[in-house]
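User: what does the whole thing look like in 3D?
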Amino acid sequence: MYLVADINVEICAAKSCKLCTQYCPEANTIQYSEELGKDKGFKYGSAYVAVDRCKGCAQCVWVCDNMAKNYAIKMIMIDQLPKAALTENITYGEKSTTAVLASPVVG
Amino acid sequence: MSLDYVKFSNGFEKFMPKEYRDMVEHGPFGKKVTVSQMGNFKEVLEEHPMCAGCAMTLFIRLAMIAFPNPEDTITVGTAGCGRLAISQAAIPFVYGNYGDQNGVASGLSRGLRLRFGDKPKDVVVMAGDGGTADIGFQQVLHSWFRKERFTTIMLDNEVYGNTGGQESGMTNRGAVLKMAPLGKKFEKMDMLQMAKVAGCAYVATVVPNNPRRVESVIKKAVLIAREVGSTYIQAYTSCNIEYAIPTDKVMEDAKAVENDRYQFTEYVSEEAKQYLTERYGYKEFLAKPAAPAAAIPGKA
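Assistant: Here's the predicted 3D structure for the full assembly of 407 residues, as C-alpha coordinates:
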Protein backbone atom coordinates (compact mmCIF):
# COMPACT_ATOMS: atom_id res chain seq x y z
CA MET A 1 0.00 0.00 0.00
CA TYR A 2 1.11 3.53 -0.57
CA LEU A 3 -0.02 7.08 0.09
CA VAL A 4 -1.67 9.33 -2.47
CA ALA A 5 -3.01 12.86 -2.18
CA ASP A 6 -6.71 13.38 -1.61
CA ILE A 7 -8.40 16.77 -1.96
CA ASN A 8 -11.40 17.77 0.14
CA VAL A 9 -13.82 19.15 -2.44
CA GLU A 10 -15.84 21.16 0.11
CA ILE A 11 -12.80 23.18 1.23
CA CYS A 12 -11.23 23.42 -2.23
CA ALA A 13 -14.39 24.61 -3.99
CA ALA A 14 -14.87 27.34 -1.41
CA LYS A 15 -11.38 28.81 -2.05
CA SER A 16 -10.30 27.60 -5.50
CA CYS A 17 -6.75 28.98 -5.34
CA LYS A 18 -5.40 26.41 -7.89
CA LEU A 19 -1.93 26.57 -6.33
CA CYS A 20 -1.59 22.79 -6.05
CA THR A 21 -2.07 22.41 -9.82
CA GLN A 22 0.95 24.70 -10.34
CA TYR A 23 3.27 23.10 -7.78
CA CYS A 24 2.76 19.37 -8.40
CA PRO A 25 5.95 18.02 -10.01
CA GLU A 26 3.98 15.51 -12.09
CA ALA A 27 2.17 16.62 -15.24
CA ASN A 28 -1.65 16.27 -15.40
CA THR A 29 -1.79 14.73 -11.94
CA ILE A 30 -3.64 17.44 -10.06
CA GLN A 31 -6.39 18.51 -12.43
CA TYR A 32 -9.01 21.19 -12.07
CA SER A 33 -12.69 20.75 -12.77
CA GLU A 34 -15.21 23.57 -13.06
CA GLU A 35 -18.13 21.22 -12.37
CA LEU A 36 -16.79 19.28 -9.40
CA GLY A 37 -17.61 21.96 -6.81
CA LYS A 38 -20.44 23.70 -8.61
CA ASP A 39 -22.57 20.57 -8.74
CA LYS A 40 -22.51 20.62 -4.93
CA GLY A 41 -23.64 24.23 -4.82
CA PHE A 42 -20.25 25.87 -4.33
CA LYS A 43 -19.18 29.01 -6.10
CA TYR A 44 -16.06 27.58 -7.77
CA GLY A 45 -14.78 24.34 -9.20
CA SER A 46 -12.35 22.07 -7.40
CA ALA A 47 -8.99 20.41 -7.95
CA TYR A 48 -8.79 16.62 -7.94
CA VAL A 49 -6.00 14.05 -8.10
CA ALA A 50 -5.42 11.45 -10.83
CA VAL A 51 -4.28 8.83 -8.32
CA ASP A 52 -2.63 6.55 -10.86
CA ARG A 53 -0.13 9.32 -11.62
CA CYS A 54 0.44 10.49 -8.03
CA LYS A 55 3.87 9.53 -6.64
CA GLY A 56 2.93 10.52 -3.09
CA CYS A 57 5.52 13.25 -2.51
CA ALA A 58 3.06 15.41 -0.54
CA GLN A 59 4.36 18.68 -1.99
CA CYS A 60 0.75 19.70 -2.64
CA VAL A 61 -0.02 19.20 1.06
CA TRP A 62 2.77 21.63 2.01
CA VAL A 63 1.62 24.15 -0.58
CA CYS A 64 -2.04 23.90 0.50
CA ASP A 65 -1.18 24.14 4.23
CA ASN A 66 1.59 26.74 4.17
CA MET A 67 1.10 28.88 1.09
CA ALA A 68 -2.66 28.79 0.57
CA LYS A 69 -3.53 28.03 4.25
CA ASN A 70 -6.52 26.01 3.11
CA TYR A 71 -5.64 22.63 4.65
CA ALA A 72 -7.68 20.83 1.99
CA ILE A 73 -5.23 18.08 0.99
CA LYS A 74 -4.38 14.98 3.01
CA MET A 75 -2.25 11.93 2.21
CA ILE A 76 -4.37 8.78 2.32
CA MET A 77 -3.59 5.09 1.75
CA ILE A 78 -4.68 4.20 -1.74
CA ASP A 79 -7.08 1.50 -0.54
CA GLN A 80 -8.70 3.90 1.95
CA LEU A 81 -9.69 6.51 -0.64
CA PRO A 82 -13.43 7.12 -0.61
CA LYS A 83 -13.35 8.10 -4.29
CA ALA A 84 -10.55 8.01 -6.83
CA ALA A 85 -10.01 9.72 -10.17
CA LEU A 86 -8.11 7.67 -12.74
CA THR A 87 -6.44 9.10 -15.81
CA GLU A 88 -8.51 7.01 -18.19
CA ASN A 89 -11.72 8.53 -16.79
CA ILE A 90 -10.56 12.10 -17.18
CA THR A 91 -11.95 13.96 -20.15
CA TYR A 92 -11.26 17.46 -21.35
CA GLY A 93 -13.85 20.02 -22.34
CA GLU A 94 -14.38 21.38 -25.84
CA LYS A 95 -12.53 24.57 -24.97
CA SER A 96 -9.54 22.69 -23.69
CA THR A 97 -7.77 25.69 -22.22
CA THR A 98 -10.67 26.80 -20.08
CA ALA A 99 -12.41 23.77 -18.67
CA VAL A 100 -12.19 20.12 -17.82
CA LEU A 101 -15.40 18.17 -17.85
CA ALA A 102 -16.00 16.37 -14.65
CA SER A 103 -16.75 12.75 -15.04
CA PRO A 104 -13.50 11.74 -13.41
CA VAL A 105 -14.54 10.68 -9.96
CA VAL A 106 -15.38 7.03 -9.59
CA GLY A 107 -16.65 5.51 -6.39
CA MET B 1 8.36 20.74 -37.63
CA SER B 2 4.89 22.12 -37.63
CA LEU B 3 1.51 21.46 -36.14
CA ASP B 4 1.19 18.53 -38.53
CA TYR B 5 3.63 16.35 -36.68
CA VAL B 6 1.27 16.00 -33.73
CA LYS B 7 -1.77 15.16 -35.82
CA PHE B 8 -3.01 11.65 -36.53
CA SER B 9 -2.33 9.90 -39.79
CA ASN B 10 -5.60 8.99 -41.48
CA GLY B 11 -7.11 5.85 -40.00
CA PHE B 12 -4.76 5.63 -37.02
CA GLU B 13 -6.74 7.69 -34.52
CA LYS B 14 -8.62 4.76 -32.97
CA PHE B 15 -5.39 2.86 -32.33
CA MET B 16 -3.72 5.68 -30.43
CA PRO B 17 -3.54 5.63 -26.63
CA LYS B 18 -5.75 8.03 -24.71
CA GLU B 19 -2.82 10.23 -23.70
CA TYR B 20 -1.87 10.73 -27.35
CA ARG B 21 -5.39 11.55 -28.39
CA ASP B 22 -5.75 14.04 -25.53
CA MET B 23 -2.45 15.62 -26.58
CA VAL B 24 -3.61 16.15 -30.16
CA GLU B 25 -7.07 17.39 -29.24
CA HIS B 26 -6.47 19.23 -25.97
CA GLY B 27 -2.74 19.94 -25.88
CA PRO B 28 -1.13 23.38 -26.01
CA PHE B 29 -0.05 23.16 -29.66
CA GLY B 30 -1.10 26.16 -31.66
CA LYS B 31 -2.71 27.81 -28.63
CA LYS B 32 -1.52 30.13 -25.92
CA VAL B 33 -1.54 28.46 -22.51
CA THR B 34 -0.31 29.88 -19.24
CA VAL B 35 0.67 28.61 -15.82
CA SER B 36 -2.67 29.74 -14.36
CA GLN B 37 -4.47 27.30 -16.70
CA MET B 38 -2.53 24.30 -15.43
CA GLY B 39 -4.81 21.37 -14.65
CA ASN B 40 -7.17 22.41 -17.44
CA PHE B 41 -5.34 21.17 -20.53
CA LYS B 42 -3.20 18.23 -21.57
CA GLU B 43 0.44 19.08 -20.98
CA VAL B 44 3.26 18.14 -23.35
CA LEU B 45 5.09 16.39 -20.51
CA GLU B 46 4.01 12.81 -19.83
CA GLU B 47 4.72 10.35 -17.03
CA HIS B 48 8.44 9.93 -16.39
CA PRO B 49 10.78 7.99 -14.09
CA MET B 50 12.14 10.92 -12.05
CA CYS B 51 12.04 10.75 -8.25
CA ALA B 52 8.91 11.69 -6.30
CA GLY B 53 8.87 15.34 -5.30
CA CYS B 54 11.81 16.36 -7.51
CA ALA B 55 12.02 20.13 -7.92
CA MET B 56 13.76 19.65 -11.28
CA THR B 57 10.65 17.89 -12.58
CA LEU B 58 8.50 20.79 -11.50
CA PHE B 59 10.82 23.23 -13.26
CA ILE B 60 10.79 21.16 -16.47
CA ARG B 61 7.00 20.96 -16.31
CA LEU B 62 6.76 24.73 -15.98
CA ALA B 63 9.35 25.27 -18.72
CA MET B 64 7.41 23.12 -21.19
CA ILE B 65 4.31 25.26 -20.55
CA ALA B 66 6.31 28.48 -20.93
CA PHE B 67 7.70 27.72 -24.40
CA PRO B 68 6.10 30.32 -26.69
CA ASN B 69 5.61 27.82 -29.56
CA PRO B 70 5.99 24.24 -28.33
CA GLU B 71 5.20 22.89 -31.82
CA ASP B 72 8.22 24.78 -33.20
CA THR B 73 10.66 23.91 -30.43
CA ILE B 74 13.43 21.34 -30.14
CA THR B 75 15.03 20.56 -26.78
CA VAL B 76 18.64 19.44 -26.50
CA GLY B 77 19.99 17.69 -23.41
CA THR B 78 22.77 15.53 -22.12
CA ALA B 79 23.36 12.88 -19.48
CA GLY B 80 21.82 13.74 -16.14
CA CYS B 81 18.52 13.46 -14.32
CA GLY B 82 16.73 16.08 -16.41
CA ARG B 83 16.72 14.11 -19.64
CA LEU B 84 14.60 11.41 -17.99
CA ALA B 85 11.69 13.85 -18.01
CA ILE B 86 12.60 16.08 -20.97
CA SER B 87 12.65 13.05 -23.25
CA GLN B 88 9.10 12.09 -22.13
CA ALA B 89 7.50 15.15 -23.70
CA ALA B 90 5.74 15.70 -27.02
CA ILE B 91 8.59 18.00 -28.08
CA PRO B 92 11.46 16.61 -30.16
CA PHE B 93 14.47 15.95 -27.93
CA VAL B 94 18.08 15.57 -29.04
CA TYR B 95 20.28 13.68 -26.62
CA GLY B 96 23.89 14.79 -27.09
CA ASN B 97 26.98 13.03 -25.83
CA TYR B 98 27.97 14.17 -22.39
CA GLY B 99 28.90 17.84 -22.57
CA ASP B 100 28.39 18.50 -26.27
CA GLN B 101 24.81 19.76 -25.96
CA ASN B 102 25.68 23.36 -26.80
CA GLY B 103 27.74 22.27 -29.80
CA VAL B 104 24.82 20.16 -31.06
CA ALA B 105 22.41 23.02 -30.43
CA SER B 106 24.65 25.44 -32.35
CA GLY B 107 24.53 23.27 -35.47
CA LEU B 108 20.83 22.58 -35.04
CA SER B 109 19.97 26.25 -34.61
CA ARG B 110 21.97 27.26 -37.70
CA GLY B 111 20.52 24.39 -39.74
CA LEU B 112 16.95 25.32 -38.82
CA ARG B 113 17.58 28.92 -39.86
CA LEU B 114 18.92 27.76 -43.22
CA ARG B 115 15.98 25.44 -43.76
CA PHE B 116 13.12 27.61 -42.45
CA GLY B 117 14.44 31.15 -42.93
CA ASP B 118 12.60 33.74 -40.88
CA LYS B 119 10.01 31.33 -39.45
CA PRO B 120 11.03 31.03 -35.81
CA LYS B 121 12.18 27.58 -34.69
CA ASP B 122 13.35 27.58 -31.09
CA VAL B 123 16.22 25.50 -29.77
CA VAL B 124 16.38 25.13 -25.99
CA VAL B 125 19.23 23.39 -24.19
CA MET B 126 18.32 21.95 -20.81
CA ALA B 127 21.19 20.27 -19.01
CA GLY B 128 22.34 19.81 -15.46
CA ASP B 129 25.07 21.68 -13.63
CA GLY B 130 27.61 18.95 -14.49
CA GLY B 131 26.73 19.02 -18.18
CA THR B 132 26.79 22.82 -18.34
CA ALA B 133 29.47 24.02 -15.93
CA ASP B 134 31.88 21.05 -15.76
CA ILE B 135 31.97 18.61 -18.63
CA GLY B 136 30.26 20.80 -21.22
CA PHE B 137 31.86 24.03 -20.01
CA GLN B 138 34.07 24.62 -23.03
CA GLN B 139 31.26 24.19 -25.56
CA VAL B 140 28.83 26.22 -23.50
CA LEU B 141 31.20 29.16 -23.22
CA HIS B 142 32.20 29.04 -26.88
CA SER B 143 28.60 28.97 -28.02
CA TRP B 144 28.05 32.14 -25.98
CA PHE B 145 31.14 33.83 -27.39
CA ARG B 146 29.90 33.00 -30.89
CA LYS B 147 26.50 34.51 -29.92
CA GLU B 148 24.66 31.40 -31.08
CA ARG B 149 20.96 32.12 -31.04
CA PHE B 150 19.45 29.58 -28.66
CA THR B 151 18.59 29.33 -24.98
CA THR B 152 20.72 27.48 -22.43
CA ILE B 153 18.99 26.45 -19.21
CA MET B 154 21.05 25.02 -16.37
CA LEU B 155 19.12 22.71 -14.03
CA ASP B 156 21.35 23.39 -11.04
CA ASN B 157 20.92 20.75 -8.33
CA GLU B 158 24.43 21.45 -7.03
CA VAL B 159 25.50 17.78 -7.23
CA TYR B 160 25.96 14.84 -9.60
CA GLY B 161 22.69 13.33 -8.43
CA ASN B 162 22.51 10.53 -11.00
CA THR B 163 25.79 8.86 -10.10
CA GLY B 164 25.78 8.81 -6.31
CA GLY B 165 26.49 12.35 -5.12
CA GLN B 166 29.84 13.68 -6.38
CA GLU B 167 30.58 17.41 -6.06
CA SER B 168 30.20 19.55 -9.17
CA GLY B 169 31.55 22.99 -10.01
CA MET B 170 28.20 24.40 -8.89
CA THR B 171 28.26 22.70 -5.46
CA ASN B 172 28.65 25.19 -2.62
CA ARG B 173 31.91 25.41 -0.72
CA GLY B 174 31.89 23.15 2.33
CA ALA B 175 28.99 20.97 1.16
CA VAL B 176 29.42 17.39 2.36
CA LEU B 177 28.11 14.75 -0.02
CA LYS B 178 28.24 10.97 -0.21
CA MET B 179 31.14 11.04 -2.66
CA ALA B 180 32.65 14.25 -1.24
CA PRO B 181 32.88 13.28 2.44
CA LEU B 182 35.43 15.95 3.40
CA GLY B 183 33.34 18.77 1.98
CA LYS B 184 33.95 20.79 -1.15
CA LYS B 185 37.08 22.94 -0.92
CA PHE B 186 36.30 25.46 -3.67
CA GLU B 187 33.70 28.12 -4.27
CA LYS B 188 30.58 27.65 -6.41
CA MET B 189 31.30 28.74 -9.99
CA ASP B 190 29.91 32.13 -10.94
CA MET B 191 28.29 31.13 -14.20
CA LEU B 192 26.08 34.21 -14.26
CA GLN B 193 29.04 36.55 -14.43
CA MET B 194 30.68 34.35 -17.05
CA ALA B 195 27.52 34.45 -19.16
CA LYS B 196 27.51 38.24 -19.04
CA VAL B 197 31.23 38.46 -19.89
CA ALA B 198 30.72 36.03 -22.78
CA GLY B 199 28.04 38.33 -24.22
CA CYS B 200 24.72 36.65 -23.44
CA ALA B 201 21.81 38.96 -24.22
CA TYR B 202 19.70 37.67 -21.35
CA VAL B 203 20.84 36.12 -18.06
CA ALA B 204 18.51 35.18 -15.20
CA THR B 205 18.36 33.08 -12.05
CA VAL B 206 15.12 31.50 -11.00
CA VAL B 207 13.73 29.09 -8.40
CA PRO B 208 10.65 26.98 -9.20
CA ASN B 209 8.72 28.10 -6.12
CA ASN B 210 7.41 30.98 -8.20
CA PRO B 211 5.74 29.38 -11.27
CA ARG B 212 4.70 32.66 -12.89
CA ARG B 213 8.21 34.01 -12.72
CA VAL B 214 9.62 30.81 -14.24
CA GLU B 215 7.12 31.18 -17.06
CA SER B 216 7.96 34.83 -17.73
CA VAL B 217 11.74 34.29 -17.58
CA ILE B 218 11.69 31.34 -20.00
CA LYS B 219 9.39 33.11 -22.41
CA LYS B 220 11.67 36.15 -22.54
CA ALA B 221 14.81 34.02 -22.94
CA VAL B 222 13.37 32.01 -25.83
CA LEU B 223 12.04 35.09 -27.63
CA ILE B 224 15.33 36.98 -27.29
CA ALA B 225 17.27 33.96 -28.57
CA ARG B 226 15.25 34.03 -31.79
CA GLU B 227 17.09 37.07 -33.11
CA VAL B 228 19.32 38.83 -30.61
CA GLY B 229 21.77 36.26 -29.27
CA SER B 230 22.51 33.63 -26.61
CA THR B 231 20.37 33.55 -23.49
CA TYR B 232 21.10 31.78 -20.20
CA ILE B 233 18.85 30.78 -17.33
CA GLN B 234 20.20 29.24 -14.15
CA ALA B 235 17.51 27.44 -12.17
CA TYR B 236 17.87 26.05 -8.67
CA THR B 237 16.31 22.60 -8.79
CA SER B 238 17.26 20.85 -5.55
CA CYS B 239 18.15 17.14 -5.39
CA ASN B 240 16.02 15.91 -2.52
CA ILE B 241 17.79 12.53 -2.55
CA GLU B 242 21.44 13.63 -2.29
CA TYR B 243 20.70 16.59 -0.01
CA ALA B 244 18.24 14.50 2.07
CA ILE B 245 15.33 16.93 1.79
CA PRO B 246 11.98 15.31 2.73
CA THR B 247 9.76 15.41 -0.36
CA ASP B 248 7.08 17.50 1.32
CA LYS B 249 9.71 20.09 2.33
CA VAL B 250 11.16 20.63 -1.16
CA MET B 251 9.35 23.94 -1.68
CA GLU B 252 10.31 25.08 1.82
CA ASP B 253 13.94 24.41 0.91
CA ALA B 254 13.52 26.24 -2.41
CA LYS B 255 12.16 29.25 -0.55
CA ALA B 256 15.03 29.20 1.95
CA VAL B 257 17.65 28.89 -0.80
CA GLU B 258 15.98 31.67 -2.78
CA ASN B 259 16.29 33.97 0.22
CA ASP B 260 19.84 32.83 0.91
CA ARG B 261 21.83 32.57 -2.31
CA TYR B 262 19.45 32.29 -5.25
CA GLN B 263 17.68 35.63 -5.28
CA PHE B 264 15.95 36.44 -8.54
CA THR B 265 18.28 38.37 -10.81
CA GLU B 266 17.73 39.34 -14.40
CA TYR B 267 20.12 40.96 -16.85
CA VAL B 268 18.72 42.10 -20.20
CA SER B 269 20.97 43.76 -22.77
CA GLU B 270 19.83 47.07 -24.26
CA GLU B 271 19.40 45.45 -27.67
CA ALA B 272 17.26 42.69 -26.16
CA LYS B 273 15.10 45.22 -24.30
CA GLN B 274 14.48 47.11 -27.51
CA TYR B 275 13.72 43.88 -29.38
CA LEU B 276 11.19 42.65 -26.80
CA THR B 277 9.50 46.03 -26.67
CA GLU B 278 9.25 46.60 -30.40
CA ARG B 279 8.71 43.05 -31.63
CA TYR B 280 6.61 41.50 -28.85
CA GLY B 281 5.07 44.54 -27.14
CA TYR B 282 6.73 44.14 -23.76
CA LYS B 283 6.01 47.24 -21.69
CA GLU B 284 8.31 46.63 -18.71
CA PHE B 285 11.39 48.02 -20.49
CA LEU B 286 9.81 51.26 -21.67
CA ALA B 287 11.39 54.37 -20.17
CA LYS B 288 9.32 55.59 -17.27
CA PRO B 289 7.89 59.08 -17.82
CA ALA B 290 10.09 61.65 -16.15
CA ALA B 291 8.61 63.39 -13.12
CA PRO B 292 7.55 66.96 -13.93
CA ALA B 293 10.30 69.41 -13.01
CA ALA B 294 9.58 71.20 -9.78
CA ALA B 295 8.64 74.83 -10.28
CA ILE B 296 11.44 77.10 -9.30
CA PRO B 297 10.12 79.76 -6.90
CA GLY B 298 10.53 83.32 -8.00
CA LYS B 299 10.67 82.54 -11.71
CA ALA B 300 7.86 82.95 -14.19
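In plain terms: The beta strands of chain A are 3-7, 30-33, 46-49, 73-77, 84-85, 105-106. The domain at 3-106 of chain A is CATH 3.30.70 (Alpha-Beta Plaits).
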